[in-house]
Design goal:
Blueprint: H1 5-17, H2 21-34, E1 41-48, E2 53-59, E3 69-73, E4 81-84, E5 88-93, E6 97-107, E7 124-136, E8 139-146, E9 149-156, E10 162-163, E11 167-170, E12 176-179, H3 181-189, H4 197-201, H5 207-220, E13 226-227, H6 228-231, E14 237-254, E15 262-263, E16 267-279, E17 287-291, E18 294-304, E19 307-329, E20 332-345, E21 349-351, E22 357-359, E23 365-374, E24 378-389, E25 397-411
Antiparallel strand pairs: 1-2, 1-5, 2-3, 3-4, 5-6, 6-7, 7-8, 7-13, 8-9, 9-10, 11-12, 14-15, 14-16, 14-25, 16-17, 16-18, 17-19, 18-19, 19-20, 19-21, 20-23, 21-22, 23-24, 24-25
Length: about 425
C-alpha cells in the first residue's frame, strides 16, 4: 500500500519528537561552533604604520570588546589575512564603524561593588589600544570596552586623546563615592555659548548621553561631524505573527491505581502567537531576546471498555527565551532558540473513566527550537517542548503533556 505524504510527515515528526533533548542541545552547540558563514566580509579599509591606506574587505564581527586584530581580504574571493594593532594605525568597516590606534593613559579601576578602591583618584597606566570612534568632528569621542569594563576618551581637533575620568570608590564611611572629573574636563575643553554648568552636572557617564553631548558641541560650533552610532543604527525590534501546528501528547498517572491511568491519543491542533523580538545591538545582531504570548489548546477523548475519558486543555503560553542566528547569505539565516515557558491554563479539565473531573493547573516547561528565516520577514521553526505536569494541584495524580510545534512566522513590524 502506498504511504501517503501525510503519513510520512507524521512519522518524521514522531521520530524527531523521540530524539533525546540532550542530543538536540549538542547538535545546536555543534552548529554554533562550526558554522563558517555567520559573519560576512564587508567593504572597509586600513591604514598601516607607513600611512598607506588599503581598500579591502574586513570580517565584521561587530566587536563587543575592542579588538587587537582583524581578518581581511583584498578582494571578495582572495586569501584571508590577519592584521594586528602593531602594524595598523586605523581601520574602518562600511563607513559605519571605525577604530583608531592610540597610546593613552587608562584607568582600569574596578566598578564592581566588592572590588571598589578606597582611592578616589584614577590609577592611570599607559597602553596602546584600538579605540572605537563614536563621534568624529571638531571634538571626538572614543570608547574602549572589555567584559564588565568600559571607558570613554576624547580629543579636540589635533590634541592628544585623553580618558574622560569617572571612578567609583569606597569612602571612609564605607559608602560609594564617585569621581566625576569628566564633567570638569568637558567644561574646560569643549566650550559652547549654550552650554551651562547645570547641563554638565546632569551629564551621565554613559554612551548615549556622551554621544549626544559631543554631537551638540560639534553642531554648536558649526562643524561637520560623523556620528558612527547613528550610521550603524539598526532595526532592533521585530513584531512577528506566528501561527502553527502542535502535535501533542498527554498521559495521566494515578499513583494508587494503574486502572485509572489514561494515555490519550496524540492530536494535531492549531496554535497562534505574537512574538516580540529584541535584537541585541552587538555581534552583528546574532543574539536576540524573544517573548511570545501564544494561545494553544488540546482536545482528546479515550474509550476503554465502553468508558470514556476526555481532556479539554486551553492555555496561554508565555515563552521567554534567547535566540541565536547563523547567517548563510545576505537575506538568509538559520536560528536556534532556548526558552522557559510560563503556562496559564483556563477552564481546563481532564475527565477520568469514572466521570470525575480533575481541574488542570499546569506547571512550566522548557523549549528548544531550530528554524530558518528569509529576508527578515518569513520564518519556519520546529520547536520541541518538554513535558509539563497539568495536574500539579493533586497529590495522587500527574499528567505529562508535551508537544512538537511547526511554527510559521511573518514579521509585520
Amino acid at each position: 500500500m502506498q504511504v501517503t505524504t501525510k503519513t510520512r510527515l507524521v512519522n518524521l515528526i514522531l521520530s524527531v519528537n523521540k530524539m533525546n533533548k540532550k542530543l538536540l542541545f549538542i547538535i545546536a552547540i555543534l552548529i554554533a561552533t562550526n558554522s563558517n558563514a555567520q559573519i560576512i566580509f564587508e567593504k572597509g579599509y586600513f591604514i598601516n604604520n607607513s600611512n598607506q591606506k588599503t581598500a579591502c574587505f574586513i570580517k565584521n564581527i561587530d566587536w563587543v570588546n575592542n579588538p587587537t586584530e582583524f581578518e581581511y581580504t583584498l578582494t571578495k574571493d582572495s586569501e584571508k589575512r590577519s592584521a594586528t594593532i602593531k602594524s595598523i594605525k586605523e581601520f574602518g568597516v562600511s563607513n559605519s564603524s571605525k577604530y583608531a590606534r592610540a597610546k593613552v593613559n587608562i584607568d582600569r579601576s574596578s566598578e564592581v561593588l566588592n572590588n571598589l578602591s578606597v582611592d578616589k583618584n584614577p590609577l592611570l597606566e599607559e597602553e596602546v589600544l584600538f579605540l572605537k570612534v563614536l563621534v568624529e568632528g571638531k571634538s571626538n569621542l572614543y570608547e574602549y570596552s572589555e567584559t564588565n569594563f568600559k571607558r570613554y576618551f576624547y580629543s579636540k581637533e589635533n590634541t592628544p586623546i585623553e580618558q574622560l575620568i569617572f571612578k567609583s570608590y569606597k569612602t571612609a564611611e564605607n559608602k560609594i563615592g564617585t569621581n566625576n572629573r569628566f564633567k570638569q574636563q568637558l567644561w574646560n575643553d569643549l566650550k559652547c555659548p549654550t552650554f551651562s554648568m547645570n547641563k554638565l552636572k546632569k551629564l551621565v557617564y554613559r554612551k548615549k548621553e556622551l554621544i549626544n553631548f559631543f554631537v551638540a558641541h560639534n553642531a554648536c560650533n558649526n562643524k561637520e561631524y560623523i556620528n558612527f552610532e547613528e550610521k550603524q543604527k539598526k532595526d532592533l525590534f521585530n513584531l512577528n505573527f506566528r501561527p502553527g501546528l502542535n502535535y501533542s501528547s498527554l498521559s495521566t498517572q494515578n499513583y494508587y491505581s494503574n486502572s485509572k491511568n489514561i494515555a490519550f491519543d496524540n492530536e494535531w491542533t492549531f496554535r497562534v502567537g505574537i512574538e516580540a523580538e529584541f535584537i541585541m545591538p552587538f555581534n552583528k545582531n546574532k543574539w536576540a531576546f524573544v517573548i511570545e504570548p501564544t494561545v494553544q489548546y488540546f482536545n482528546s477523548k479515550k474509550e476503554v471498555d465502553s468508558k470514556n475519558a476526555k481532556a479539554d486543555y486551553k492555555s496561554i503560553e508565555l515563552p521567554l527565551g534567547v535566540r541565536h542566528y547563523f547567517f548563510l547569505k545576505e537575506h538568509s539565516k538559520l536560528f536556534i532558540n532556548g526558552a522557559f515557558i510560563l503556562d496559564f491554563s483556563s477552564n481546563s479539565i481532564i475527565e477520568s473513566y469514572s466521570g470525575s473531573k480533575l481541574e488542570i493547573k499546569s506547571r512550566n516547561s522548557f523549549a528548544l527550537g531550530i528554524g530558518y528565516k528569509y529576508q527578515d520577514s518569513y520564518s519556519l521553526e520546529i520547536r520541541s517542548i518538554t513535558k509539563r505536569d497539568l495536574l500539579s494541584d493533586y497529590m495522587s495524580y500527574s499528567a505529562a503533556y508535551s508537544s512538537l510545534s511547526i511554527i510559521f512566522g511573518y514579521s509585520f513590524f
